[in-house]
Amino acid sequence: MHEYYVTQQLIKIAEDELKEIKPKKVLSIKVVVGELSGIIDESLKFYFDILTKGTILEGSKLEIVQKKALLFCNSCQSLFERTKDFLCPKCKSLGKLTEHGREFYIESIEVDDGDGN
Ligand SMILES: [Zn+2]
């Protein structure tokens, strides 16, 4: 059910953004989702279709850009993509989680403003 509320928030933010532009139609909305955000893409898509009914976003395509989690190694000060054992590929020290991978935000919204371009 987590995604239900998350999707509601997402739609609210998008609607606020679109208030200014007043597009004829919304074509697609691109959302960045980190792998540690706890958000499941399929659920997000599922609720998006349901919750956008009757809104300006109805019929638009939800594009999800996945971001990998990055770990930080204190020993050699490097950022690396999460490994299974959390070990730094360079020096084999234990890395720690960073903010990379917890993303959840709207990157862009593609609209049709009706002038044919
Ligand atoms: Zn290292």
From TrEMBL:
Example GO molecular function: nickel cation binding
Keyword set, alphabetical order: Metal-binding, Nickel, Zinc
Sequence positions that bind Zn(2+): C73, C76, C88, C91
One matching Pfam family: HypA
Keyword Transmembrane: no
Binding residues for Ni(2+): H2
Domain of life: Bacteria
InterPro entries: HypA/HybF (IPR000688)
Biological process annotations from GO: protein maturation
Family from the record: Belongs to the HypA/HybF family.
PANTHER family membership: HYDROGENASE MATURATION FACTOR HYPA (PTHR34535:SF3)
Function statement: Involved in the maturation of [NiFe] hydrogenases. Required for nickel insertion into the metal center of the hydrogenase.
The name this protein goes by in its record: Hydrogenase maturation factor HypA
